[in-house]
Amino acid sequence: MKKRILSMFFAFCFVISAVIPAGAAETGSSMTVSDAGINLIEGFEGYSQYAQSGGSKWYIGYGTACGENDYPNGISKEDAEKLLKDALSANETSINSFLTKYNIELTQNQYDALVSFTYNLGSSWMDPSNRISGYLIGGIKNYKDIEVVNAIGAWCHTGTTVNDNLVVRRLAEAKLYLYGDYGNSDSHDFTYIIYDAGGGNVDHDIVFYEKGKPYGTLQAPQRSGYIFKGWRTDTGKQISADDIASDNLKVSANWAAETAVSNPYSDVSSGDWFYSYVSDLSCSGVIGGYPDGTFKANNTVTCGEALKLILRAAGYGAQAATGSHWASGYLKLAVSDGLADEKAVSDLDSPISRLLIAQIAAKALNLPVSQIQSPFSDTSDGYVLALYNAGIIEGSSDNGVRLFKPDSSLTRAEISAIVWRINNTEKAPKQQQTIQYGSYTVDVLPDVPVASYDPDSFRLDNSIMHYDKSGVETKIGIDVSEYQGTIDWQKVKASGVDYAIIRLGYRGYTSGGIYLDKNFDSNIKGALDAGVEVGVYFFSQAITPDEAKDEANFVLSHIKGYNVTYPVTFDWEVIGKNTARTYGLDTDTLCKSAASYCDTIANAGYKPMIYFNSYEGYVKYDLSRVLKYDFWFAQYSQKPSFYYNYQMWQYASSGKVDGISGLVDMNICFKNY
User: Fold this and answer.
1) Among the options 42, 45, 305, 551, which is catalytic?
2) 210 given a catalytic annotation
3) CA 196 centroid distance within chain
4) In angstroms, what CA-CA distances link 213 with 190, 210, 523?
């Protein structure tokens, strides 16, 4: 099951058994990439047996350019590596020419890093006006390590947007260049900040820092007519140069008009926790104080005041009174939009509970109900958790216990913080949402659950993905076929693998014949004997529901007698060739075929599942029609980005597991089967 999610490069953490020492420096004229360097590139690129489209170009094997119809029968890994080496020879020629021209000497690890860099990006970096080229020409040893990391790391964009997966690759190449690290085993670690100047200008939109040390210097943006007041995270926290670099951050510039008065209140001082929220909102006319010049931060907010502030911050317009109370229009709007129950607000002049305003705010912002483990000891309300996830609320700490105090009222200071954070949070549109996937714009399916996984909680350790979220139990798995050869399942089990999804068979993508995987029986017996739980998958090329049912019955005939506890998966994939029998299959037929397979499996007492990548999930399937089945999503990266929920994630095609001689697909499962 080897696929690529196109229009992005794939991150990895790939360990090899032999690391090439740095050795003596060589001139560029005769250097070639080492075997370790080739393994590194293969790990980054992932293997694709068939040609895949990447915009106007086609790629096969390990990311090598090809024509659409050059390889109608696909390509083996051995031939893919030969193709890769041929492509790398052109990169070697251009790099050696550059090194010779400027009399630059490199060690083998430095050279390998540049070959990977060039294979991914092309040779445009060799222009002397670029930082990395200038450093090499001027003598890179004259620059600090962090300067070199930034010179390499800056090349991490898809268009003008920072791509997290390219960031991972650039950091790995920088560590290979600096420290000879071919397997992400070096102790040097770096974090980064993505800067949003908010209408201003900065030198770089991403800057890398040494992890565990103070930032030292933060960028100073410029914006005509405004005063820069600092960088703030999505949660409203202001960062400073003295802060320790620990996590990757996205920060936005906080601006104030040059004529603005920063603090008009006599009872608000710069040391107050709410100072920046109150002063910013006051300067923009969102909130005001009392006639005596005070703000009275601890006074309670009324229902009417809270409704107006939250709805305006969420993007609703001003509302005229529809009754005797000045805020009656806001209440009517909240009720008519389904944000609040009219019975819940009996008196617009009375205090509003923290729980009620959280529910109204989350609905107004179109935030889906969150299923995360609650950080609060006194509530697990899904709307509260959605606001917490979005960085809009934080709660308070009492003797080390985090509290939300759902029945308590809100103060003027607290509502100011919430409104400021909403104003500085990207808001989902209130009308029909769309998803942009490559050149496709697709409508959001409102009935399909949204993924609630926290991207920052994923952590890749060699080939093993961890999800460091309290209360979420995960299992690590692999999926295998005859392409993995003979497997030592006892070693696989000892390596920490919990389950295996084993290919049972496949349908030919041209002839349509059904075949049993040559190693199915030996794989499933070996896995079960070693104590590895198993599921199976069938590579489908069905073009009718009846064919899909035939595939399911074929599967059932071969799993009889085996203890299959993990799902029995329908793996229908786009081949990308107009000669494939499934070419152009419509969504209606695909969904009916998937349902036919899965219902047949479920009726036999097994757990069905549907496998897809981003293209198939967004474009080919209508997931709202197959919701009663579990989903297995494929995206080769360190953080998943698929909008909808899924129970299993195939995160790599280039994993290394003891007991398997080659590369293997890696998976993490979020459901206890």
Assistant:
1) 45
2) no
3) 19
4) 10, 6, 48
pLDDT level of residue 6 (50, 70, 90 thresholds): very low
**Crossing angle for the helix pair 145-153 and 164-179, to the nearest 10 degrees:** 140
Distance CA 197, CA 247 (A): 20
CB burial class (10 A; 0-12, 13-18, 19+) of residue 121?
middle
pLDDT for residue 257 is more than 70 = no
Q: Are strands 249-257 and 401-403 parallel, antiparallel or unpaired?
A: unpaired
Write b or e for each residue in 480-495: b if 16 or more Cβ atoms lie within 10 A of its Cβ, otherwise e. Answer: bbebbeebbbeebbeb
Q: How far is CA 434 from the centre of its chain?
A: 18
Positive or negative, the CA dihedral 413, 417, 420, 422 is negative
Calculate helix-pair angle for 131-138, 145-153, nearest 10 degrees: 140
Q: How far apart are CA 229 and CA 214, in angstroms?
A: 20
Q: Give the DSSP letter of residue 9.
A: P
Detail the DSSP E strand segments found in 378-480: 396-398, 401-403, 434-437, 440-443, 458-461, 464-467, 475-480
End-to-end CA separation in angstroms for the chain: 22
Range in 271-280, 290-299, 568-577 with the lowest mean pLDDT: 271-280
For the chain, give the percent of residues with pLDDT over 90: 55
Contacts of residue 23, Cβ cutoff 8 Å, sequence gap at least 6: 107, 108
| Six token digits for residue 317 | 């317009």
- Please report which residue ranges of 502-586 form alpha helices under DSSP H: 520-529, 545-559
Phi, psi of 276 (to 5 degrees): -65, -35
Looking at residue 173, what is its pLDDT? 94
Q: Which amino acid is at 273?
A: W
Is the distance from CB of 509 to CB of 581 less than 8 angstroms? yes
CA distance 636 to 654: 9
Mean pLDDT taken over the chain: 87
The pTM of this model reads 0.46
**Which tokens hold the place of 605?**
């007492």
Report the distance separating Cα 171 and Cα 188, nearest Å. 10
Mean pLDDT of 532-558: 97
User: H or E element: which one contains 641?
Assistant: none
Phi, psi of 491 (to 5 degrees): -70, -40
Cβ-contact 349, 302 below 8 angstroms: yes
Burial 22-49 (b: 16+ CB within 10 A, else e): eeeeeebeebebbebbbbbbbbbbbbbb
